[in-house]
Amino acid sequence: MLHSIIQSLKGGLIVSCQALEGEPFYGSDYMARFAIAAEMGKAVGIRANTPQDIRAIKQVSHLPLIGLWKQDYSGSDVYITPTLQEIEGVIAAGADIVAMDATLRPRPGGMNLAEIVEKIREKHQVLLMADVSTVAEGEEAEKLGFDLISTTLSGYTDYSPQGEEPDIQLVADLSRKVGIPVLAEGKIYTPGQASQCIQAGAYAVVIGGAITRPQLITKKFTDAIR
Question: Is the distance from CB of 202 to CB of 10 less than 8 angstroms?
């Protein structure tokens, strides 16, 4: 069953349906509708934040769901599913895959990444995805037993390349160096960029704001016109 979920993602598009508080489409009902639209557009999976959104989307979509829970903790820059509490919440909500920050930065709560993975494996049969920013982090994630890797955090750690374009080099390097699927995610705004990621070795491509944040899409057009 778990292997078939991974297989179903191969070569496809995963749509990240997320909105922050204060944005016009914030709310689980809106995210569920975005998920329906993504499925109509032949996406192969959904990525969603918070147990509420995960539950709402699972009610209307049969696509595999990558779940996460963003939480800020003082003293740590790790915010994507940072502790066991968030991981348990995402699993309970019905996520098929749990995405978490797998960078080498200090985590809140006193547990390191290896300990967290071990605890989850003891209790649950669930797929784990490592959001990373460098090749070294991806290689370490594979050693720890993650099932998939995503380049989500490239450009969002102070030691990874900073830029406006997707980190296609990281996709290519990880695809060569690890034996588990590598998903391309982050700063992918055009179909051409998505295609480049697949050509570089990405198992699948994750796109969020370019599809599900109309205010950002609008701004790109208005900036270009001006």
Answer: no
Q: What is the pLDDT of residues 181-215, one digit of tens each?
A: 999 999 999 999 999 999 999 999 999 999 999 99
Residues forming a β-bridge with 199: none
Distances (CA, A) of 11 to 114, 194, 212: 29, 11, 21
Helices of type H across 41-112: 51-60, 84-93
pLDDT tens readout for residues 36-89 = 999 999 999 999 999 999 999 999 999 999 999 999 999 999 999 999 999 999
C-alpha–C-alpha distance, residues 162 and 167, integer Å:
9
Give exposure, 2-22, as e/b (b: 16+ Cβ within 10 Å): eeebbeebeeebbbbbbbeee
